[in-house]
Specification:
CATH architecture: Sandwich
Order of helices and strands: HEEEEEEEEEEE
CATH class: Mainly Beta
Oligomer: single chain
Mean pLDDT: 88
Number of strands: 11
Low-confidence stretches: 1-17
CATH topology: Jelly Rolls
Helix content: under 10%
Number of helices: 1
Amino acid sequence: MKILLILLALLPFNVSALNAYPGAYTLLPPLSRTTTTTSEVIHNAQSIKCGHVIVNVSAYTAGSITAHVQGYVNATGTYYDLLVSPALTATGTTVLKVCPGITAVANGATADFIPTQWQVQLVAADATPITYSVSLELMQ
């Protein structure tokens, strides 16, 4: 029983463990936010190449947010944009796709791979509260 509990503790149940494996994750739970929000750094533990970043805006009155899928540069400690959504200005679901070989679509999909370390940043245009969540679907 003790060994089983130790093994279960090692399994990746969510991205807060910072190791991404194939599957579905909640990166940012649904909350009302008024400022730019950045996820934790996600470590690509299983050479994930493809993923969907799903932004669900569930309450909106004004303002906007813009989702940035960002890779990390180890040498400089900086982030770069892989894909940037259009300004999200209404309730609804936006899916950003990152995968080699897919057709690139401006502000929606990029024919690139998911880097070793990455994050998702939601940039708020102003301090107007917007309720949203961010989920991931990761594939090899």
